Amino acid sequence: MTNEISSLGWFLVGVIGLAILQRRLHFEIQTVLFLITKRIDLALAIFSILFLPGVLLHELSHYFMARLLRVPVGRLSIIPQPLPDGRLRLGYVETASTDFLRDALIGAAPLIAGSLFVAYAGLVHLNFAAIWEQLGLGQISSLLTAFSQVSNQPDFWIWFYIIFVVSSTMFPSATDRRAWSPILLTLGLFVALLLISGAGPWLWTNLGSVLMSIVHILSLIFILSAFVHLIILPPLWLLRVSLERIFHLKVV
Hints:
There is one protein chain. The protein has 252 residues and is mainly α. The chain has one domain. It is 75% helix and 5% strand. A two-stranded antiparallel sheet has the order 1-4. The protein has a two-stranded antiparallel sheet with strand order 2-3. Strand 2 and strand 3 (88-89) form a beta hairpin. The N and C termini lie far apart (44 Å). 25% of the residues are buried.
């Protein structure tokens, strides 16, 4: 049970950490670009180009999932557009309204595709598994050594950049998540009925190991993504603070 609690804990740390770091890092990048260019439109254009690989994967995931599920698809755009609430929409795909199951799958497509890519690039090309292993041991010196070895691999910074932009754009938007509530409610009721009927122990015995394996894999993906963001955030924060002092501007 301790391992299960640990896996769930890492999963929550990864998801919440990535969500917080992603939002903060986007703010820091946009602010730095604005302080350098002094133009909001140019800063947003550079920001959009920087995240283009991730946005392209995000929108194409929607598109191909919709086509796979035989849902009519309209326009696809990767041109950024400011929204009335002040947020920036980096792209979109128009899909026909359908049943909540297919809507949920289309909405989740970027998260699925992004997670698969991060796992592939991080574990196969950058061998981040070595860092994860040392992190689990809690040895700082070994962790730094492992990271130094990983960063010396060929094309490290290219893969690091791609992992960053993909993981930073793979979270579904509020529109993408609109069909998730019925799915989660249905699953919750189904599990509750199983527990009430006394099938809980049988369910855990037969499916517990599979579910925890999935949670462990997802934990690794989200922790890896959050770790990449955490590496980039401090120097960007320092650069933003320095630019604000140089130009005597404060961006909030």
